[in-house]
Input
Amino acid sequence: MSVSPSSAPLIALRGVRKSFGHLEVLRGIDMDIRKGEVVAIIGPSGSGKSTILRTINGLTPINEGSIRVGDIEVGDPKLDKVKLRHRVGMVFQQYNLFPHRTVLQNVAMAPIQVLKEPREQVEERARRLLAEMRLPDKADAYPGELSGGQQQRVAIARALCMEPEVILFDEVTAALDPEMVKEVLSAVRKVAEDGVTCILVTHEMGFAREAADHIYFTDRGVIVEHAPPQTFFTEASDPRTKEFLSKVL
Amino acid sequence: MVGDIQAFFRDLSGSGINLTIFYDAFDFGRFVTGLGYTLLLIALSGFFSILIGAMGAAVLSLGRGPAASVIRGYVALFRNTPLIVQMYFFYFAIGSIMPVMRNEIGLAQPLIGGLAWAVISLSLYAGAFNVETFRAGIGAVHRSYEEAALALGYTPRQVFVSVTAPLALRFSFASLANNLVDLTKATTVAYAVGVTELLYVSNQIWSDSLNTIEMMNVILVIYLVLTGLVVFLINRVEAAMRLPGFGAGGAP
Output
């Protein structure tokens, strides 16, 4: 693959391996993700999809290989974690909002406490993001008072308020009722349209097909194949991919 | 009004129920003094034991190495030996090697008296239990909240202060109420080092007035009321800190 300097990848994984005990979850992962791209990682349960995401922001340390985000080497022992997590946000399957903080506080607290930005400026941004997520009147509610779909949109606003270049979406619709999936997916689409690089682990094949620029298929800790969605869903070559697609489509 | 009450209890003593504290000014004064010291012991030891418990649990959950070992040793020592032995140890063993001052009329006065030793001893005793209570509360906080904070760039210490501790506190109330009820009852042990708390003054009163059975009943009722108050207070704090959709107040 020829890579021109202008399209040098924002995120590059090379030979990433990770074991939990004697269970090898990632067995040599290579990925290149360019700025502004929307990448979907799909594959059967336990294939290491979520682990890939968690290695990119350093939540899960790797055993071998290298991960680079911009000019940050994630495996560096002297890694500035604040700098990395400022650039790479994350949204979780179970939302993980802080139940003891209001919606506005959830969204604004990290930029205030971690990035030391002025409170008023951050809260103004937080309110704007909540409005964009169509939750303007929920600022003073507690997460426990919201529906799952609303909580997940707050979680997306919380990630956006750090003004990251990349957001990792870890099965963000998997815990939601079907009617809430749509509202969250449209929020994700909005994030992608605004130019934030998105890496999604998802079981929503329709969404992956329509919103992603690139699809990676993982199975048993390796990337079996990757392609743009048009080719991936119609011309998958590997038998494992074909088998998986025949089950989910 | 007061006269009526006194007259009633003076009459009652004729029928064999002799509650001197309700009609004899001297016994009443002694009793109030005792109640005051008991309340002081509960308040001070309760406060310091919560402080010790919180700091100990923070060290155990954040730190490894020597500091955590010290806390574990402290908990093992104070949780697994009798309170009265600990209090005697402080008062007689450590107290005897502490400097002794002279008061204004020239009498010997220890630097740390019975009341102070009782507070120190009760705080350390109840603190050991509170360490375990808060540690269990911290263990009950789901790891996913901490991960969300880490993913937002929080350091482990910031995660503990901003996320783990406030949630852990809410998981700790039931067990904390237990410990503070236990502490309330345990303040009677201060009798052993000469603190004029409720049991001490009651003993004086029944020795003088020969109304042991009556005073025993009074003491039981008073401690029921005191422990009830402690539980009421904790429940109020717990209710004030209850979160919608989180913990015992709603669906998880």
DSSP finds nine helices and ten strands in chain A.
